[in-house]
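Query protein
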Amino acid sequence: MCAFVFQGASALALDAKGRLTVPARHRDVLKEMCAGQLTLTKHPEGCLIVFPRPVWEGFRDKVAALPMSAAGWKRIFLGNAMDVEIDGASRVLVSPELRAAAGLSRDVMLLGMGSHLELWDAARYAAHEAEVMQQQMPEALKDFSF
């Protein structure tokens, strides 16, 4: 579904209205891939997931098809989803509700995660990364060749 792979980290700042300027390296791809239409929602690890709309639609359909035992997660992903567009100044508005949920202040990190992006509060991401680096490497990576 997603021919482009998002990767890399960008240190950015939200403006006073909660808008984020989309980095140039992602902007052109997003405008071509989905006409700048994105969907933001909560991530279980405390950040936001930023989906190009076509990728979101596939994810949304999978989540919607989950059984009732996953109703809580359906609410987290679907109930908090916000459709946004990249504006003429290459910005995306992050709603106050989603900013609060992810603890976003001024300084943020935008991480390319393959088919989507993650938006983290910069301090929260630094703490998360430090915590991950202190953990043992998961079994899935132990035989991985670098």
Observations:
- The longest strand covers residues 6-13.
- The chain has one domain: 6-142.
- The CA atoms of residues 63 and 74 lie 6 Å apart.
